[in-house]
Amino acid sequence: MGKRDPRIDAYIAKQKDFAKPILTHLRDVVHAACPDVEETLKWSSPFFDYKGQPMCNMAAFKEHAAFGFWKAPLIEGLGSKSENGVAGSAGHFGRLATVKDLPSKKVLTGYIKSAMKLNDEGVVVAKSKMSEKPVGKVPPELATALAKNKKAKATFDAFPPSHRREYVEWIADAKREETRAKRVAQAVEWIAEGKSRNWKYQ
Questions:
Q1: Are 118 and 49 contained in the same domain?
Q2: For the whole prediction, is pTM greater than 0.85?
Q3: Using N-to-C axis directions, what is the helix angle for 150-158 and 140-147, rounded to 10°?
Q4: Residue-number span of the structural domain to which 113 is assigned
């Protein structure tokens, strides 16, 4: 039988009121379609594993929730909606504000059954280098701070594009100058230690 993780209960409980019914519905649909599913937390978000492999995941944000499939490129009807398989902040069904934004239970169940079949067969999704997002322009504040710390700059330059992009986006997203300054200082400290932006979750 499947395994429910109390950490997922806690995750759902702390989300905003709009998100709770969406996450609860998705969780119930996944368990109904895949009785042997196992829940876990990865990157601070709920994941549903099957046969020891990730199958699908969900997350809640400030104004929307998201749901996606790990091997979406290989699931008919989802390939065009995905990027490297794993769902980002918009998932594979767009930004979810209510349960009505999701496909019907029947359609979702079909996607879950397809994902189960891929895991049954041990299929692995190969990440495409062609779909790697550009790093983006390094914020001037970060560039200046890195120039003053040789170790951090060398590490940053050696990071894979995804690691550099995470730091660039994190700092660029800061609305206030003091927030940006704090993030730059924290980023340089972590980079000098060889840590990625999301090292706590890896």
A1: yes
A2: no
A3: 120
A4: 6-129
Q: Evaluate whether residue 83 is within a structural domain.
A: yes
Pick from 87, 88, 95, 108: nearest CA to 65: 95
In a domain, 1, yes or no: no
Whole-Å CA distances, 71 to 2, 105, 147: 20, 19, 40
Each residue's pLDDT tens digit, 95-116: 889 999 998 999 999 999 999 9
Q: Are 121 and 60 in contact (CB under 8 A)?
A: no
Q: Considering the domain boundaries, does residue 184 fall inside one? A: yes
Domain count within the chain: 2
Q: How far apart are CA 114 and CA 177, in angstroms?
A: 47
Do both 68 and 160 map to the same domain? no
Q: Residue 63 gets which letter from DSSP?
A: S
- Specify the DSSP element, H or E, that contains 112: helix 105-120
Beta strands in 52-195 (DSSP E): 53-60, 65-69
Given 77, 97, 129, which residue is the final one in a domain? 129
pLDDT at 2: 64
Q: What share of the chain is helix, strand, coil (3-state, %, to 5)?
A: 50, 15, 40
The answer on 20 and 118 residing in a single domain is yes
